[in-house]
Amino acid sequence: MLYTLTDLQNLTVHASDGDIGQTKDFYFDDKHWVIRYLVVETGSWLLSKKILLSPISIKAFNQEHKTLTVTISREQVKNSPDIDSEKPVSRQHEVDHMEYYGYSHYWGNTGIWGREPSPNMMAPGYYSVAPKPDNLDNPEMSADVEAALSRDNDHHLRSSDAVTGYHLDAIDGELGHLQGMLIDIDTWAIRYLIINTSNWWLGHLVLIAPKWIKEVSWPTSKIYVDMTQQQVKDAPTYDSSVPFNIEHEQSLQTHYGRNDE
């Protein structure tokens, strides 16, 4: 099932030894279009410190009660690496975070979560037989970390709060602005961007698949889309009051599949 970013904000995070805080923002990868971290504000118990929460640690999501259950503890959170929520997450910070919690690195492979199809399969102890060695005993993984650090200037993690409101340019004109995203929480992949077309087509929301995004320009606060205005106008509209279901998915796949040909 797909959820909007709004659905996933202000969730209470249940750790193994008590509540951690609430989800406030999301860092996403604009190369693979996946949520890499949730930003959690810890509240008074930890002086409202903001921490990164990897989807690797998420065990369960309860939409009715607006909760996330995670495998980490409050004690771990206390000593977790600090972040500056006003700046992009660097690769060095990711390395520190992943190594602190004992997670494998997702980069260096073709999949969005390394060798695995979903983040929870990267959790320590997921496999009861032949667990993955850590990078201290794996020279190949250590080399991968070094290579990743050397490419730090080409990193692609940004805040969803920061990008919301960016204007989109089609091949032949403006499309509107980014209003939100639809997330598949099995993989935490961003399946669709929710576009408000009020700039030129009043009163409509449309969904655009990330494969149509040509570039996210942080200096100009714009998203460039490899589509025409007419292609967007022909796409099924999105009604935020109606739950996104399989019929919507099939309709979008038919539309975008046709445009692929």
* Low-confidence runs: 128-153
SS-based class: alpha+beta
> Proportion of β residues?
25-35%
How do the helices and strands follow one another from N- to C-terminus? EEEEEEEHHHEHEEEEEEHH
State the CATH architecture of the largest domain: Roll
The general outline is: globular
Per the CATH scheme, the topology name of the largest domain is SH3 type barrels
Question: Total number of helical segments?
Answer: 6
Count of distinct structural domains: 2
Largest sheet: 7 strands, mixed
Name of the CATH class of the largest domain? Mainly Beta
User: Got a strand count?
Assistant: 14
Protein name: PRC-barrel domain containing protein
Organism: Shewanella polaris
Domain PRC-barrel: 3-76
